[in-house]
Design goal:
- The chain has a five-stranded parallel beta sheet, sandwiched between helices. A two-stranded antiparallel sheet has the order 6-7.
- It has two domains: 1-116, Response regulator (Rossmann fold); 129-230, Arc Repressor Mutant, subunit A (Orthogonal Bundle).
- The chain has helices at 11-22, 36-46, 62-72, 88-93, 109-127, 134-146, 158-171, 177-184, 188-200, and strands at 2-7, 27-33, 50-54, 78-83, 101-104, 204-209, 217-222.
- The chain is built from nine helices and seven strands.
- The model has no long low-confidence stretch (mean pLDDT 80).
- It has 230 residues and is of the alpha/beta class.
- 47% of the residues lie in helices and 17% in strands.
Length: 230
């Protein structure tokens, strides 16, 4: 279970988010906090995997809470920031210490469900990596930190983008859009949209493989990845 801490000064909103999270398989709520100070205490005592963090808190900014968690957490704590559209630029500037996801409020249950399910899929893929793959993990997080301030095209979600990149990182070979779609539990059309965006941004390379007669096969790998020869 993914242990989730909810931080919001409005107890009605916090209760609603709790009800949302508890509807999603694989997640459990370990607590609710209404202030930044309380949030930091609960991070230390409940040791959540994930914090749903409202940026507007009565004592300190959620951005300060985020920075403190990043600097002080002994183990990795992931954050999904709850913010207004006008504050996205400030949030992006705070992402330099790690990859931070966000939801723009107000949002419906479906938006949170998609975000959490994408996040859970990423955690599962990452957990499958062995210690021998730590360099690959570090390299990928470096790439994600560098790209965390990019503006994504409408309809693309950052957690899903990161999932696609992790899949390509772990594969150790180039993949087709269909293979990426299967591994990420996406439709082929959706996977292709993310792959095309990564190609356009220069992080993924598209190669054409000619095998049996007919149209060439489109295959994708991360730029700079070491692929098997032959």
């Amino acid at each position: 279970m993914i242990r989730t801490l909810i931080v919001d000064d409005d107890f009605r909103v916090a209760d609603l988010h709790r009800a949302y999270v508890e509807k999603i398989a694989g997640f459990t709520v370990v607590g609710q906090a209404g202030t930044g100070a309380e949030a930091l205490r609960m991070v230390a005592t409940t040791r959540p995997d994930l914090v749903l963090l409202d940026i507007y808190l009565p004592d300190v900014s959620g951005l300060d809470v985020m920075r403190t968690i990043r600097e002080a957490a002994a183990s990795r704590v992931d954050i999904i920031a709850i913010t207004a559209a006008r504050d996205v630029e400030s949030l992006r500037s705070a992402m330099h210490g790690g990859v931070v996801h966000y939801l723009i409020k107000p949002f419906r249950f479906a938006a949170l469900k998609e975000k959490l399910e994408s996040y859970a899929a990423m955690r599962q893929r990452l957990a499958q990596l062995s210690e021998a793959d730590q360099h690959a993990v570090d390299t990928l997080y470096h790439i994600l930190r560098q790209s965390s301030d990019e503006a994504l095209p409408k309809g693309l979600a950052r957690p899903t983008l990161e999932l696609v990149m992790r899949i390509l990182q772990e594969a150790g070979r180039d993949l087709t859009a269909t293979e990426v779609a299967d591994l990420a539990s996406l439709s082929r059309v959706t996977a292709r949209r993310y792959l095309d965006h990564l190609v356009q941004s220069g992080r993924v390379e598209l190669v054409m493989r000619y095998g049996s007669p007919g149209r060439p096969e489109h295959r994708y790998h991360l730029v700079g990845a070491t692929l098997p020869t032959g």
